[in-house]
Amino acid sequence: MFNKKPRRNFRQRKGKSSDEDEQKSGEDDGSKTQATASSIKPVKLPQNRGISCSSKREAKSPKSDSSGAEDAVEYGTSGPFVGTRPPNSKEDKDGRKKKGNVLSFSNEKEGTRLTCFCYVNSQSTDVFQTSLTDSKVVVIPDARRIQAARRQRQAARAQKDYISLGRDGESSPRTPDQDLEERTDEDYDDDDEPDDHERRIEFAPRSKTIRERIAEKMGGSGASESDDQESEDNNLWEEQQIGKGVKRHPGESGSSRRKQRVNIPECLPLISLSVVKKRITGKLCDLREVHRAHEADLRRMEVDMDSSRTSLENLESGSSDRQLQFYRDTNTYIQNLVECLREKVVEINSVEVDMHTLLSDQAEVLLSRRREAIRQKSSCLQQLSCECLCFESGEPGEEDYGSLTADSEPSPEEEAELQRAREEILSRSQDVFCDVQEDFWEVKKVLSRFNEWRVAFSESYHSAYISLCLPKLLNPLIRHQLLGWNPLQAAGEDFEALPWFSAVETFCHGLGYQEADHTDRKTLPAIIEKTLLPKIQGFVELVWDPLSSRQSLCLSELCHRLQDDYSLFEGEQSKPVKAFVEAVSGRLRSSVDDDIFIPLYPKKFLDDKSSPQRRFRDQQFWTAVKLLGNIGQWDGLISEHVLKELMLDKLLNRYLMMTLLNETHSHDSVHTCKKVAVCFPKSWFKDLSSCPSQLKSFSDHLLQTAHSVCKQQPDHPNTRAVVSDVLTVLGSIQAWDKVETISDKYHYQDLVDTLKLS
Questions:
Q1: Which residues, in sequence order, are CB contacts of 439 under 8 Å at separation 6+?
Q2: Within 13 Å, how many C-alpha atoms sit on residue 317's CB side?
Q3: Which of 136-145, 631-640, 716-725 shows the lowest mean pLDDT across its residues?
Q4: 194 alpha-carbon distance from chain centroid
Q5: CA-CA distances (angstroms) from residue 51 to 72, 117, 134, 173, 480?
Q6: Could you give the 3-state DSSP secondary structure of residue 662?
Q7: 708 CB contacts (<8 Å, ≥6 apart)?
């Protein structure tokens, strides 16, 4: 059950000794033994007391008799005792004991023996008043005296006034010296001690720990102590544990050590009046903010209470019946309106398609006629140039040179036929709502019904998002009124003069309502964007001729007005606006690619202004310049990147510069460059310090023209005027480096100063 190894007794008797000798020595030396036993007292020893083990050479002692020479004096913590030298100990040739370590242990086959050659150090000499020089032999006392000394030592231990930390009543952690001492007292000296199997096993409860003992003592005073008392007990226990492991100085108390462990600052930060005032001010600001939040909550609650009270009064007054009846009537009206529009929108679409077809057919006829005429004339002139024949034609007048070509217009007969067909279509459109009451097709009366709803029950009106539904609901009715409107004609009727526009404008901004009071202020811009702009887009794709200055001017001015009044083209564009811009850009690009043609002829034909080749080349050149100006009118509506691509990369550098570089007359070249430069939008050159890269060829040509004029005709009366025109054109495109070059080389600084001032 208890697997405990038996202890071994290492003390050995001398081989030649007998019981009688031991008894005799015990009687003869009784006085000495008594003196030795009386000297065994608990003496306060230094820290390094006890057995001293070292590897130094042992000191020689004078020879004594056989019994005393072979013995060595041993001292332990409990008192001196003698151990015999083993008979097999080695000696040198002189008979002296071999030098070795102080303490040695050796194991033999016959049994385990312990041989200790222990010598008393200098400190032990003070305790027991003896030294290595003394040859006195200390005799081991008998068992009775040893037991008496052990009882005396245990009685001295029991008188301690402190509580032991160990479980077995030990006052301090055990050291190897104490273990050796106890082994010496019990194992070596007590031969009569029973073996392990003869020992009585005590099943006593284990000794309580120091924490348990303190808790038991503190709990005895009262079981109802507070948490503060428990905390003090823990601190006391921790103090005792720390004090046992830390060396205490004389006169040091527990309170002083406790103060050392608590880091109490010597001086606290000073708190001035300004700091206190600042803290109080901050706290006051926080409280005021909370107070304002509470006041805002209170106002909201009051508004909610008023609204609830009003609703309650309305319900109590019986207005629910009137409101229910109104909702029923409104629901019936809207259902009838939607059903009517669903039926009539088919007829409106049919009439609208007929009108667009009529206008697009006429535009296609004019475009095909112009392209065919250019093709035939170019083929004829090319044949004449190859055969070197003269083309019979009238002499050009001065008024024909440098003027833009006229727009393609239908003949009087074609115009009359167009008007007759247009009137017929408009007559058909009047019959679309002939069988419908005015409340369902007049925009003003339709909006009056919704206005009645808005006035009577504003909350439910806005909750139904009527302002978002009106543009789609009114779309067929507005398109019906726009059937005769043509955005490409300046003499036509303006869309703002139509009945639908005044009705919508009055509904959004009139009748005493302010724009900030309701969301219907966005209804008119939404109708312009979703109804009017797609109408204009149809004319752009089917009817508009970009080469026509009249149509381009009317269309661009209308779009600029929409931009100024409704901001349709700025910021993030909606889907209808993006579609319209793409339609305009595509139409301009197709016109540049398909309608611009500048022929090339031999120089002898181009130098002759009266030749048909020169006249045809000039006609095509000025057609390209006219298209350049028409495209420039879309500045601010179409992105600058698209405009520069069409005007500079394609028209100017691909077609116009070829003609300008082949011009032999300097005066004519400068006049032509002025016409071209007028077409460039002025917004391109704002906040620029140099000429754009796409205009480098154009500015270089002007510089070469100025050099040619100043070198060939320096004293000609028109030279200064020509140079002034060149400097003006260069300044308008921000080519100031070339302006400085001309003024420095030919001394026209006065012209430059005048140009900068203007």
A1: 333, 445, 446, 449
A2: 9
A3: 136-145
A4: 84
A5: 13, 10, 18, 18, 127
A6: coil
A7: 666
Count of all residues that appear for the chain in the document: 758
Q: Output Rg (C-alpha) for the chain, integer angstroms.
A: 63
The tokens for 646 are: 């069409």
Q: What is the DSSP string of 598-617?
A: -----HHHHS-TTSHHHHHH
What is the value of pTM for the model shown?
A: 0.58
**Two tokens at 456?**
């009577």
Is 60 exceeded by the pLDDT of residue 196? no
Cα angle at 32 between 96 and 103, to 5 degrees? 35
Mean pLDDT of 337-345: 95
pLDDT above 90 (res 94): no
115: helix, strand or coil: strand
The span from the CA of 169 to the CA of 164, in Å, is 5
Supply the pLDDT for residue 247: 55
Alpha-carbon span 120 to 58, nearest angstrom? 11
Least confident of 11-15, 281-285, 495-499, 623-627: 11-15
Ranking 34-43, 301-310, 344-353, 443-452 by mean pLDDT, the lowest is 34-43
First to last CA, the chain: 123
Q: SS3 of 97, please?
A: strand
Give residues with Cβ within 8 angstroms of 482, minimum separation 6.
495, 498, 531, 532, 535
Tokens of 659: 């003609």
> Which helix (H) or strand (E) segment is 105 a member of?
strand 103-107
DSSP sequence for 702-732: HHHHHHHHHHH-TT-TTHHHHHHHHHHHHHH
For residues 427, 432, 437, 440, the Cα torsion angle rounded to the nearest 10 degrees is -120
pLDDT greater than 90 at residue 421: yes
CA dihedral 659, 660, 666, 671 (to 10 degrees): 100
Give CA–CA dist 698/513, Å, rounded.
57
DSSP 91: B
Burial of 741: CB neighbours in 10 Å, binned 0-12, 13-18, 19+? middle
Residue percentage of the chain with pLDDT more than 90? 42
Residue with tokens 């065919």: 372
